[in-house]
Structures are given as C-alpha cells and as structure tokens.
Amino acid sequence: MEIKGSTNIVGLIGHPVEHSFSPPMHNAAFEKLNMDYAYVAFNVKPNDLESAINGAEALNIKGLNVTIPHKIEVMNYLDEIDEVAQLIGAVNTIDFKNLKGYNTDGIGAVRAIEEVASIKNKNVLIAGAGGASRAISFYIAKYGADNLKILNRNVEKAQKLANDVSNSGLIDNVGFDSINNMDLSDVDILINTTPVGMHPNVDDTPIAQACDMHEDLIVFDAVYNPNETGLLRQAIEADVKPVYGIKMLLYQGAESFEIWTGKKAPIDVMQEALTKYLGL
Ligand SMILES: NC(=O)c1ccc[n+]([C@@H]2O[C@H](COP(=O)([O-])OP(=O)(O)OC[C@H]3O[C@@H](n4cnc5c(N)ncnc54)[C@H](OP(=O)(O)O)[C@@H]3O)[C@@H](O)[C@H]2O)c1
C-alpha cells in the first residue's frame, strides 16, 4: 500500500485500540481493489471524544468505526443517525459525507446468519441482553422474524430490551425469560450473545446439556475466540448448522466499508485477513 498526498483516510476510534482486527481487514480490502484509501486506529480518551470528531471532520477523514467506550456518547456529536442505530442507542460507524452514524454490528450478525437461512418468519431466541444482543435484536426484528425471545441471567434487563424492541413496531411478538428457562423445541435460530464459552473457558456453553437441539435449528455464537466454541461444537454434534462469531466481525466491517466507499466489499479477502490476524 502506497500512502500518497491523495490517500483517503478512514479508521477506528476507541480506548484502547491497539489490538483491533479492523486495520488489517480493511487495508487488505483497499489493497485488493487498488483503492487509494488507508485505515488507521486512533486511541481517543473518553474526555477527548468531541474534539476527536471535530478534528476528524477538519482533517477530511472519510469515515470512522467507533468502539468501546465511545459507541453511545458519540451520538451527541453527529448530525444524523440511522433509524435502527437510533433505536439501538449506539453507533459503530460514522460516514463523514453527512456526519451520519450507523450501527453495523447487528447487520453483521444478520448477514452472517442469512448466509445459512433467511430470518424472515422465523422464531429467534437470543441469549444475553447486553450491547451485542441489543444491536442484533433490532435487526432480527427489522429482517422480519415472527417471534423474538430474549433470555438473560438478569431478567429485568431482558424485559427492558424486549419492551424496547416491541415498542419499535418492527415486530409484533417479543418475549423474555430467565436464561435458565431455555427451550429450543419451537426455535428456528438460537443466538448466543453472552461471553460464556470465551477463552479461556472454552468448554462452557450457555445452554444446558439437557436442552435438545433439533436438526432444523441454526446456532449462531457471537463469541469468536475460540472460533469453534463449546456451543458450536454441541451444534455440530447434533447435526445443526453452526454460524461462527468471526462472520459477524467480517460483515460489520463489510457494511462499514460499503457505507464509506459505495463499493461492494471484497468479502473473501477481508475474511482471509481477519482469520490470519486472529490466528484462527
Ligand atoms: N462476533 C462479534 O462481532 C461480536 C460483537 C460484539 C460482541 N461479541 C461478543 O459477544 C459477547 C457479549 O458482548 P456484549 O458487548 O454484549 O457484552 P455485555 O454488554 O457485557 O453483555 C453481556 C451479556 O452476557 C450476559 N452474561 C455475562 N456473563 C454471563 C454468564 N456467566 N452466564 C450467563 N450470562 C452471562 C450478561 O447477563 P447479565 O445482564 O445478567 O449480566 C449480559 O446479558 C462477548 O463475548 C463479545 O466478545 C461479538
């Protein structure tokens, strides 16, 4: 990659950002398409967020990804916010053409799942009610699921998220329950957004062994370290289609790329760079 006077800059703001997978993934895409772009990571402390956004605009930066701890606060400094990002209440992508914020995390999960099956008219169960669950839930609703049920350890949090999704008007049937009351018999798509199974506790799974997986189920695990989690191993053993967490990382990046450049993201090249960077 040759950095020239004309090179367009996009990047990431967060705190910390040193271990981000996004620079190698996006730069591989720019290189493949021979685009005069470069992606860099900026470590922005919480108190510096407003000046970072103003500075990025002044420096003619084309687009930014936004990560922890800025995803909510950054909404105060944008001119426009995409409708679903507004419902989610968090932004992970800024397009400086119109200083507009988007949330591509949920789209990333939906694109990953839709590689395997359409979400339309399906019964979807989500374990967890934190940030990832919130981003995914609204997109599951937007993509036409019939039923959405949110299970969480803290049931009040599941109820709050279920109410928010229900009030969006994107879906009619939204329920909630304790994560201990999981029943997969009527579920078409199971999504794990809890960190259960993350390295180093790689044999833990968020569902009880007694919870039977039927053969038409699809299981998506947002956890991507390890690549094949205990939950996905359970799925494979039950002849159930697994959807890997790395795909959500990939497609959230692809969506951001497409928002900034207006070009179709080169998925294979981005996936190869991501897999290599994460050592998967
Ligand atoms: N693949 C991707 O692109 C991607 C993107 C974002 C996140 N993720 C992954 O998704 C996971 C969650 O991230 P997040 O940002 O949503 O975190 P978060 O906001 O902290 O939410 C965590 C959720 O998991 C639940 N939880 C935590 N520990 C649990 C346990 N031991 N047993 C049962 N439930 C538990 C929490 O329940 P309580 O409310 O009861 O505490 C909460 O609902 C992480 O592993 C993260 O790496 C992946």
From TrEMBL:
Example GO BP: shikimate metabolic process
Keywords: Amino-acid biosynthesis, Aromatic amino acid biosynthesis, NADP, Oxidoreductase
Domain of life per record: Archaea
Stored Pfam families: SDH_C, Shikimate_DH, Shikimate_dh_N
Top class in the EC scheme: oxidoreductase
Binding site for shikimate: S20, F21, S22, T67, N92, D105, Y224, Q252
Catalysed reactions, semicolon-separated: shikimate + NADP(+) = 3-dehydroshikimate + NADPH + H(+)
Enzyme Commission identifier(s): 1.1.1.25
Shikimate dehydrogenase substrate binding N-terminal domain span: 12-94
Pathway: Metabolic intermediate biosynthesis; chorismate biosynthesis; chorismate from D-erythrose 4-phosphate and phosphoenolpyruvate: step 4/7
GO MF annotation: an example: shikimate 3-dehydrogenase (NADP+) activity
Active site: K71 (proton acceptor)
Residue ranges annotated for the Quinate/shikimate 5-dehydrogenase/glutamyl-tRNA reductase domain, each copy included: 115-195
Domain SDH C-terminal as annotated: residue spans: 245-274
Function field: Involved in the biosynthesis of the chorismate, which leads to the biosynthesis of aromatic amino acids. Catalyzes the reversible NADPH linked reduction of 3-dehydroshikimate (DHSA) to yield shikimate (SA).
NCBIfam families the UniProt entry points to: aroE (TIGR00507), PRK00258.2-2 (NF001314), PRK00258.3-3 (NF001319)
Entries under PANTHER family matching the protein: BIFUNCTIONAL 3-DEHYDROQUINATE DEHYDRATASE_SHIKIMATE DEHYDROGENASE, CHLOROPLASTIC (PTHR21089:SF1), SHIKIMATE DEHYDROGENASE (PTHR21089)
Subunit structure: Homodimer.
Protein family membership: Belongs to the shikimate dehydrogenase family.
Name of the protein: Shikimate dehydrogenase (NADP(+))
Organism per entry: Methanobrevibacter millerae
Taxonomy of the source species: Archaea, Methanobacteriati, Methanobacteriota, Methanomada group, Methanobacteria
Gene: aroE
